[in-house]
Amino acid sequence: xxxxxxxxARCVTGSCHMLCxxxxxxxxxxxxxxxxxxxxxxxxxxxxxxxxxIDAVLLTHAHIDHSGLLPLLVKRGxxxxxxxxxxxxxxxxxxxxxxxxxxxxxxxxxxxKNLRAGKPMVEPMYTxxxxxxxxxxxxxxxxxxxxxxxxxxxxxxxxxxHLLGSAAIELxxxxxxxxTKLVFSGDIGRDERPILRDPSSIDGADYVVMEGTYGDRxxxxxxxxxxxxxxxxxxxxxxxxxxxxxxxxxAVGRTQELLYTIKRLMMKNAVPGLEKIPVFVDSPLGINxxxxxxxxxxxxxxxxxxxxxxxxxxxxxxxNLRVAETGEESKLINFQPGCNIIISSSGxxxxxxxxxxxxxxxxxxxxxxxxxxxxxxxxxxxxx
Length: 384
Fold this sequence. Notes:
Metallo-beta-lactamase, Chain A; alpha/beta; 12 helices; Rossmann fold
């Protein structure tokens, strides 16, 4: 048995590990390099293996740095099964086609530059059709189920609290009469995060492959209650100034946490008048992801979120919530009078509708720009 690290080695993104064992080859994740990691030795579309030889993929969660090269894998000949949780399969159903659209837009932009420079045209890494075909290979499982990946290889997905449906994967590989247990952590969530259960624990392993994104530091002792109070204070100040409160946010995960926390603040009356302030979600991907979060509630929510569901319906159903589905609806937000809370993507401000909200609000002294997620080096969000 051999384990090969094909991505997320000496960098954060592009997670991809290949397990070679008696009779088969299995990938754990097949992610896209993002940000500064794109400039590694391998290009974003290179594989360190032949996709046709891969028997199956085990997917820890739906974030693109773990799933984003699956359509390319299929495009280049993979036709095995992609095993993951039900929620991850659903989120992948919106995130991979969205990624494909970005690939087409990037190729179109590059070709305009190449045309002026007399350089050859480029093709997108993959298309929406490739993404849709990829979804046909998904085989959803539930947390705790032990499934046969391939003869001699069994897997179990365990709740790891990072994203809806995220999992740490236990693998039992039988080879030459010996069973070896491996654990792949995926991305590990933090305790007490909103909506999702805390990461579960796993007993025993022969080998553990664990993420090390924050392995060189200790998180501060800020609790979720502290963060909730910080948000309340910013909202109070922004509402008092009378301008818009613009929040760049990742469409999947962070947007839902924001809506959930805003609803908690309303229920506690922690921000007087908050229920009268329009809350816009201006992200088609974020809107669709929220619908998936609502559908998957009973299997994935923690006790507090389930209690809110029981008491007041969806944790994201605000009386003042408005969604902008079309580009025209997005532009009209800028003509809304008074104070508005605008949650829009992309979270690092490098693309998407958040750009025109920044354009219309950065110069205004009464506006607030609130960052609620990590801003990578080189991004507009980091510069701001």
